[in-house]
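debug: dumping io for the single-chain case to check the tokenizer round-trip. Nothing else runs in this session.
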Amino acid sequence: MQWISNSFPTFFIVLVIVVDVSIAKSPIILIPGTGGNRLEAKLTGKKWKPAWYCLSSTITFYTLWFDLTAPFPGFTKCWADNIRLEWDLEKMTTSDVQGVETKVPEFGRTESVEYLDSVGVIPYMKSLVEYFVTMGYERNKEIRAAPYDFRYSPDTTPHNYFNELKDLIEETYVLNNNEAVTLITHSYGGLMTLYFLNKVSKSWKKKFIKQWIALAAPFGGSILETLVYASGFVDKKLERVIEPLDVRAGQRSFTSNLVLLPSRFAWSDDYVFAQISNKTFIISNISGYLDQVGFHEGTLMMEQIVNNTELMKMSPGVPISCFYGNKLNSTVNRLIFDKSGFPDHPIGFEYGHGDGSVNLESLVLCEMFADLQKENVTIHELPDVGHLDILENEELFSTIESMVI
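debug: decoded output
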């Protein structure tokens, strides 16, 4: 009898500890990359249309990104004109095209990043979200998302995004018993997050942010981005139905693409990223390249917005773990043109290491943060994993699980 009375309190204490550990997990906020969340638009009376059959007005908002009708013949031009930005070169500002009103739906909700279309055809972070739901995370409480208008550079992002992100982090902290939040970013979302973390105080970060997990972050930009300004760029899966030149104007108008141009931090000043017959363009002369492809206004705008060179001088000020894939000879590291086809039609590419979209030289720049901050910085390379494949990698998910639970 005496043995039972002594052992009961001990068992009770152990039981309480086990329960506490099971609920002590860091809530997650997902910050997607370029094109990683839906955008909605409403046409309010466009005065100019690229084709007579393009709509000038709509009654309600509809899915602009990703609009499943965009790849259909004839519709690409309509869609591309609706999603592009207009530049005011006197004020050096950007905005929606006249007659187009856009918004980012479902802020805070994972639905905004799980699928890129409104009916669930094109998955993005679906596998990542479902993995953590299986591990006990509750959608829209313990795992949430912070979508944004990915067309803009970090410093010109509209809709008061960074204040909303700050509020979302604080709200998520409170909803989860004052547990600090883990930020998980993909691709361009990493540059957005780096910018954000430099806009909040050290004391705020210490209280609300447990860690930042950056997936496939293009800290030094990408050589592939230079193709956007030459011929336009379309994913290989869509090349048969979408002509890159049809989307070039829209892609050129996104100031986020200027931020993603290759940086001197990742390549030497004299690195040749494009060759036109006997003429070459080097990293230190990207402005000359933009002029040569007929986009001088890009040079002017690039001088006004934050760029990745400036961003990489900033310290996150939180523990950061960077994960990236590396597939040998998979990633464009030089564009090849002849005179007759420049800039609309490259005749070839040279390839190097990277994740298929971002060069290895850019992906490894995360290690620079170790010299800028006292908080822990770790780098993890995933062999033979692509830029989007990383969002389907359960081995990675398991590693992240061990970091948040």
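debug: round-trip ok. Residues 1-21 have pLDDT under 50 and may be disordered.
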